[in-house]
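Predict both folds.
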Amino acid sequence: MCALSASANTRVPYPAKPVRMVVPLAPGGGSDIVARVVAQALAGRWGQGVVVDNRPGAGGTLGSAIVARAAADGYTLLVTSTTLAIAPALYRNPDAEAVKQLAPLSLLADQPSVLAINGRLAATSLPELLAMMKAQPGKLAFGSTGVGTASHLANELFTATAGVKALHIPYKSAGLAATALLAGEIQFMVTNMATALPHVRAGRLKGLGVTSGKRVAVAAELPTLHEAGLAGFEYTTWYGLLAPRGTPAGVTVRVHEQLTHIAQDAAVKSRLSAQGLEPRFSAPQAFERYLQSELMRWERVVQAAGLIAD
């Protein structure tokens, strides 16, 4: 097995063949963007191909389960998001428990979202939107990339915090949900900045605020939702890299070594920042602790929203 022996510090070539990087969501979303940036950087350093393999379905659990069942040899990795921490609370099936068979390698990035509304909607501010929603409970709709995904729960967190009711319409990808928002099929959405900002700046959508705790450099003109009137609200989507549990320690050391170099790469930082992503590389142990805290956080959100799927 190709590995780096931590005890003897004997370097055995890894990777000796192309690495498969599974993304459990459709192309075009945040996980896909992060995966392609990291895959390109790793391939350049390793001299081996890193192939991004999109495997969407079942709220992200299908792709996660594929990696959890893969050989623990470092040649099948997972780039996923907050969705991984949501699934165990939302679903009652074995694939949703894939997180237990996955070993965190590193956080990769954070992405603040933006609350965007259809450009033809009468509201021009967060208080005006909330007033409309309170006057018409359950009439305004939001979209997501599917039941149980991070985008779904982010919107549920928003409506629960604001004390309003809305209709959820799931789509197969962030791109399709954005198209629906532009067409007026849905009226609002907490969505990733890379998808929404070009449309906001073109006047096709209205940006009411960002979901992070502080303003974001690439959209400094937008207030935080806390500043806009939703006290205490904060949410960002995180992205991380994982491998099947049992992957040799030497392989995880080798991957982490390369990620440490990538974290300092100006081109990588620039590509992520251009998409509204904040680079956030970490040690495996730190990611493990963070993931456990996220599992507890989203279990509370799912229970409060009354969302239990099959």
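Second protein follows, with its predicted structure tokens after the sequence.
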Amino acid sequence: MTLRRTGAALACIAAMAWSASARAQVAPARLSALATEPDWSKLNQFQGSIARDDFIHLLDTVYAPNGAWKQTIKIAADSAYVLASGTSEWVLRFDEFDAPAPPRQLYWKLIQARPAGAPPLSGLKIALDPGHLGGKWAHMEERWFQVGAGTVPVAEGDMTLLTARLLAAKLRAAGAEVVFAHNNPEPLTKLRPADLRDAAREQLRRQGMAFLRDGYGGAADPLRMNSIQWTSELLFYRTAEIQARAQLVNDVLKPDIVLCMHYNAEAWGDPAKPELVPKNHMHLLVNGCYSAQELALDDVRYSMLVKLLSRTYSEELPLANHIANALAAATGLPPYQYTTPNAIRVGDNPYVWARDLLANRLYECPVVYIEPYVMNSREVWDRVQAGNYEGRKLIDGKVRESIYEEYANAVLAGLESAMKDMRQKLAQ
């Protein structure tokens, strides 16, 4: 769900000046919440692997538009000078030297490494990441609501898990290897909000909160953002949980792509009396659109360079385009339109945007972030009440598959179409 609570930019601090005098006043490590200092030497595998013009083009059009990169990256004729940890710099040598680039040391396989004549999904290792938490945790995340006693609750974490399990069976039948970044309503992280209270205090201090509360009075409490309890909960499910999944993905599962599966929502007002809305839409996200404030953080800047230099975008965009087209055909939903600067359109598909989210940043392989349906729209609520079922049913005057089967079948069709198209183009 791309709808985020007020105060979601927990990790952001003011962007730093580039001058040496300003840099000398900056703390040795500028890190986002719960992050560790990156090892910049790992980026040396990309020395000589990208041309100067290509590097600037990706910064300007995908990763750091509107000059967001210029406070922390300086570009010369043959190199880029990147502010690293403290006042040090990491230097990227462009490929104009005609020196051989180091061997590729990434765990994921490029599409062009696959035989053109093979079945579309054969040999492809896909990690499914059903978004959010289910069960009792959905209440803490505010990803749960119910309209009237005796109705089926709408809980995003449970819905994404059901959809991902349906999709996994279909992908395996089509020849893909499928693994899960998360396959349980319970959190993957061993941390709990009580373990993060000190980090929450520090986070609130960085945000300049002069008045701190220990607890808060539920989702309707207008001052909950000032509380240690609410901030520690946010760090638990928004940060620690995604970091745990990222460690599993990058260190153990090592897939070729990750599909982050979500359902979207509009604001539903009073949680005790949630509002159903007429809007229903969809969109997909690839990694990009970092702000200057985000790039002022060492770990964020490092992760952006990993994504840019390993060329995930060239894999993410066609996958997102094909999945978007398949979902649009299956659902008939219009594209969601961002009106905020935290996302930009990439390519010519009206459904596909670039945005920096913790999951699509930390997962080092290509990531497609899928956001169909508005959970608190009247249409989707009616479909959730119908549950998962075989075949088709008449719902709101339309004969439809269950919402879960429709979602899973469309993603499968989009993936197969993307792989066919990408392999055919490479064979030409």
